[in-house]
Amino acid sequence: MLARTTSLAVAALVALVAVPAEAGIRQARVVSANPVDNTPHVLDGIVNAFALVGNTVIVGGRFGAVKEARGNEEIPRANIFAFNLSTGRVLRDFAPDLSGGAVNALAAGPDGTVFAGGSFVASERGLVRLRVTDGSPVASFSAPVYGGDVYSLVRQGGKLYVGGDFYRIGRTLRTALARVDVETGETDPAFTVTPEGGPSSAVKVYAMAATRDRLVVDGSFGTLDGLRRPQLGVIDLTTGQVADWHTDAYATACKPDFPSYVRGVDVSPDGRYFVVVTTGGPFPGTTKLCDSAARFETYARGDQIRPTWVNLTGGDSLYSVAITGSAVYVGGHQRWLDNPMGADTRGPGAVSRPGIGAIDPVTGKAQSWNPTRERGIGVKAFMTVKKGLLVGSDTTSLGREYHARVGMFPAT
């Protein structure tokens, strides 16, 4: 099994690198295990993504109706809706029609807008910028995608990074990854990093996360700009080039029906490390990172970088991860964490964490937080906010209460 790096070794490693601006929301403590009572309910389908614009939460996925926590009215919504974070009230004027496919990704835009990406057919196929006040598209932004869909969005200032399995965005050929202007949607000619190859037929960027000067990408690819980067790579945003950061941790295949198995990724609030979660199947007693969460140091350099720690579920998929500094939250349809010897069974040392759990960022071991959730397909969306942790999934039980597909654990 992989040896766990000690706390002192982790501290020594991160002390060698410059610390970028904060990449996300830092929370001093693990959130409460008791969800708030006022989040709205999504009545069908699945929630895939969140974004926060001011005090408004935008929710994307594949669904047709929502309902407020303190009401009985079914409110039609075509794969996207918005609600007030403080009150839980659904915004009635925000009702864009993003039918024809799912919303897979969201990112807050400038001037009270939000970017939505997915497989939908709207005024712009697969990628659109919407006003939060009334849901209308911003006509000046045009970046339709062709040949595939959008799976991930990351905005940094005036630039929007777009990941998916497309071959063209707007008028420009781009394979699975592009950078566009947030105002116009024009593709940036200075950013041409190209994913290629990989374990499956379709090249795809599943997930992305960024610091001030690094972009972490994972997905179904073998190289970035011809450099070996099996399923995971880091891009230096100061140069627009692939960083001197390489790992073969995900080069080994899992089960044949999971040729590509990386899924969610998030960067710590200080940017020093990131965590990748995967699907893939149980392989007890091996170094394969199937069905796992693994921490990597963002500013490590060189070849054959190894994870700082790995936490294995023992055979259940993880799809989403969120890092707050005090915890690494992971979600999927897992039954256990700390289960390196399990094979669809509870192995020695395993702890029960149905559908959601929290991992210590330094030790890589499960924390005591265990609210539970109905497992279903799994958690497909996390978003940390100052008030807590938003959770999006396909099921209706969270923290042993009814919270249909959307819920929030409050900060403590």
From TrEMBL:
The lineage of its organism: Bacteria, Bacillati, Actinomycetota, Actinomycetes, Streptosporangiales. Residues 1-23 form the signal peptide. Pfam families: DUF5122 (PF17164). This is PKD domain containing protein. Keywords: Signal. Residues 345-371 are annotated as: Disordered. It comes from Planotetraspora thailandica. It comes from the Bacteria.
